[in-house]
Amino acid sequence: MRIAFISRHEFNPIKGGIERVTDTLIKEFLINGHDVYSIVLIKENSGYSSPCDCYYFPEISIYSKVNREWYNNLLNEKGINVIINQYGLSRESYLFLDIDNHNIKKLTCIHSKALLSYDTYAHLVMCSTWEWKKIVKLAFLPLFKFKYLTCLKRHYRKVFKMSDKVVFLSSKYKKDIERLHLDIDITKFESISNPLPTKQEELESNKANYVVYCSRMDNEAKNPISMIRIWNDISKRGLHNWTLIMIGDGPDLLEVKQTAERLGCRNVIFTGFTDPFPYYKKAKIYCATSKYEGFLMTLIEAMSFGCVPILFDSYVVASEIVDNGKNGFLIDAFDERKFASILAKLMVTSDISGLQKEAVEKVKIFSTDRIASKWFNLFNAI
């Protein structure tokens, strides 16, 4: 089968979860004898070497007639059977799914929770650092939420109409889609989890007192500033033999660094964009403070290295991955005081090997070969 992955950006695995997932699937599909291509809107000078042939749209505009003609010609020239749109929540989807050849099957992936930030919209507003925006949005909160939901519904209607299947990260998101009353063909709903992009190694026996946090530095969704406030609480408890390692870059990195400095947080290292796996291998604990997620890739990656996870129970897939108290800890959404308390208790626990082994065992269900087989079944079914 000939498969094309389509997106706005290159699938450089160190850039983020979607990129790492796609890079993993491309390699697995190639191993299984499929012809795989990637077609990308924007060419980046990142030094990324694609494992498959990669093509770039001639223009950046998603409304370009030149792009549309070039894209359709390329798909026909390569004899593509299936395209996988990896940018399903953006308007770029309207270009990626605009295909004349009806024999080409179109799959759209939604790499976030189905309702995005709608359920936590008020919390997002309260966390805004722009006071005048906060006041305006709180005053007109119902109106802003209505507008937000209206735009989301319009997008889903169009994507479902243009796609043969819309692939979410959990079957639990089907209820959210049904809540929207979209008047769509709900049989197009499909769910496949993300794959674990690494082969699990033997658990490191000599782990260090590291707490690792890995995400895009974006306070609207990933909420790294919350981790800094939590670590400030830890610092006040005198646990100075531990180090917090913040991995990632993004629009709010400077604000996060400045907050850490202003609060006087001790033992915090910011690495920027880098390979997180050496840190997972050495760290004992992994933390996440996201306001919403679809499927947190860094969570299963860290667990595969035996990091015990602590995270906010702010999205439905969290409880599918973490069994509270068995292989990690789920904290009531945005309760930073409770988060710090559980983290501190774990830091002073003399033996966490049981939790570590359970974490490693749990994420075996996300092995690449298992997830790839679900994709192959979907290809055969459409």
From TrEMBL:
SUPFAM superfamilies noted in UniProt: UDP-Glycosyltransferase/glycogen phosphorylase
Keyword Glycosyltransferase carried by entry: yes
The protein's Enzyme Commission number: 2.4.1.52
Superkingdom as given in the UniProt entry: Bacteria
Domain Glycosyl transferase family: 199-347
Keyword Transmembrane: no
Molecular function GO labels: poly(glycerol-phosphate) alpha-glucosyltransferase activity
Enzyme class (EC, first level): transferase
Pfam name, any one: Glycos_transf_1
Keywords: Glycosyltransferase, Transferase
Protein name stated in the entry: Glycosyl transferase family protein
Species, as recorded: Bacteroides thetaiotaomicron
